[in-house]
Write a structure and sequence with these properties.
By secondary structure, the chain is mostly helical. The longest helix is centred in the N-terminal third of the chain and has 29 residues. It is flat. It folds into two domains: about 30 residues; about 90 residues, no CATH class.
């Protein structure tokens, strides 16, 4: 009688382990694959074009729309901290334009300079193996 109980318990344990293994495998197998990098960048570009096509309400709203669109491709960036700095700078500059502290042209120039500096910093990191 004892042998049957041990054998039955072992069978249930094995069935439980197999069942859990199959459940975990099903979760992993049904997980959607990450979209290709090219797809993320294309979707981001399309979203940014849509932002620019909308009527300009104010520069901060446009900057936030562009940042949201850029975030679509965020998983593809090599330096997330530099990417975030660029997004933050965009909104800060837009706020200054909205307050009439600087012109839209000055804001665009400042943002282009910031992007250039961040690009150079990214290249330097790559060259240094960071």
């Amino acid at each position: 009688m004892t042998m049957r109980l041990c054998g039955a318990g072992r069978g249930r344990g094995l069935a439980l382990v197999l069942g859990l293994g199959l459940a975990v495998q099903a979760c992993v197998a049904t997980r959607p694959a990450a979209p290709p990098v090219v797809d993320l960048k294309a979707r981001s570009d399309e979203a940014q074009a849509a932002c620019r096509a909308q009527p300009l309400v104010n520069y901060v709203a446009r900057a936030k729309c562009l940042n949201d669109a850029a975030m679509i491709a965020a998983p593809t960036v090599e330096n997330p901290d530099l990417f975030r700095r660029a997004l933050n700078a965009r909104v800060e500059i837009a706020a200054r334009v909205d307050k009439k502290e600087i012109s839209p042209e000055q804001g665009a120039n400042e943002y282009a300079e910031i992007q250039a500096r961040l690009t150079e910093e990214g290249k330097a990191r790559l060259a240094n193996g960071e």
